[in-house]
UniProtKB/TrEMBL annotation:
The lineage of its organism: Eukaryota, Metazoa, Spiralia, Lophotrochozoa, Annelida. This is Uncharacterized protein. Keywords: Membrane, Transmembrane, Transmembrane helix. The chain crosses the membrane at residues 25-49, 61-85, 91-118. It comes from Helobdella robusta. The gene is 20207271.
Length: 219
C-alpha cells in the first residue's frame, strides 16, 4: 500500500475539521432542544402546584416543543445534505434521511397547526370538532369563531402576556378547568364544567351583542 500523498493529507484534515464542527453543532442543538422540551413538559405537569408562577406554560410549552423539534429536524437534514455533498452517503444515510424527512414533516405540520391556533384563539379540538359545539356554529350552520380578538391580542393571550381576565365573557375555559383541576376532579367532570360554562358565557355574549345592535339601531 502506497503512503498518502501530502495533498491527500491536507484534504483529509480539512474534512475531519469540518466533520468535527458539524457533529459538535448537531449534538449541542439536539441536547438543547431536548432539554428545553423536557423542562417545559415537567413544569407544565407541575403547574397545579406552582400555578401563579407559570401560567404561561399552560399552552405555550407545546409551542416551544414543536419549535425546538422542528429546528432539530432542519439542522439534522442540513447535516445529511452535507454528507451527500462530500460524497459520504451510503444506504444507512439514505434511509436515515428518509425517516428524518418524515419526522420533520410531522413536526412542521404540528408547528403550523400550533401557529394557526395561536393566531386565531381556538384549540385543535374546537377546530376539528366545531360541529359538536353550538357556540361555534352561526345561524347559517357554518363555523364561527367568537374568540378571535385580532392577531396581536390572540398571541398575547396565548402566551399569557395580557391578563386573561380581560377577555370579558371569554374567560370560562381557564376559570373552570383550573378550578376543577385544583379540586382534583375527573376528566369527565372537567369537560362537563367547561361545556356548561361555555354555554352560559355564550348566552351572555349573545345578549350583550344583541343589546349593542339594538343601541346602534336606535341611534
Amino acid at each position: 500500500m502506497s503512503p498518502l500523498a501530502p495533498n491527500h493529507i491536507t484534504r483529509i484534515i480539512g474534512l475531519v475539521d469540518q466533520f468535527d464542527l458539524s457533529v459538535g453543532l448537531f449534538v449541542v442543538l439536539g441536547l438543547l432542544a431536548y432539554e428545553i422540551s423536557w423542562i417545559l413538559t415537567i413544569l407544565n405537569g407541575l403547574r397545579l402546584f406552582i400555578l401563579p408562577f407559570c401560567t404561561i406554560l399552560i399552552r405555550a410549552w407545546f409551542f416551544f416543543f414543536t419549535l425546538t423539534t422542528l429546528l432539530l429536524g432542519f439542522v439534522s437534514l442540513t447535516f445529511c445534505g452535507y454528507l451527500f455533498l462530500i460524497g459520504h452517503a451510503d444506504y444507512f444515510i439514505w434511509f436515515g434521511t428518509f425517516m428524518l424527512t418524515l419526522l420533520t414533516s410531522v413536526s412542521a405540520l404540528a408547528f403550523v397547526c400550533t401557529i394557526i391556533n395561536l393566531t386565531s384563539g381556538m384549540t385543535t379540538n374546537e377546530r376539528a370538532n366545531w360541529a359538536r359545539y353550538s357556540y361555534l356554529i352561526d345561524s347559517r350552520g357554518r363555523l364561527m369563531n367568537p374568540f378571535n380578538r385580532g392577531f396581536f391580542r390572540n398571541v398575547a393571550e396565548y402566551f399569557s402576556i395580557s391578563n386573561y381576565d380581560e377577555r370579558s365573557s371569554m374567560n370560562f375555559e381557564n376559570r373552570w378547568v383550573l378550578r376543577s383541576a385544583l379540586n382534583f376532579a375527573s376528566d369527565g367532570e372537567i369537560v362537563r364544567e367547561v361545556a356548561s360554562a361555555r354555554e352560559q358565557d355564550m348566552e351572555i355574549y349573545e345578549k350583550r351583542k344583541g343589546h349593542e345592535q339594538l343601541d346602534e339601531q336606535q341611534s
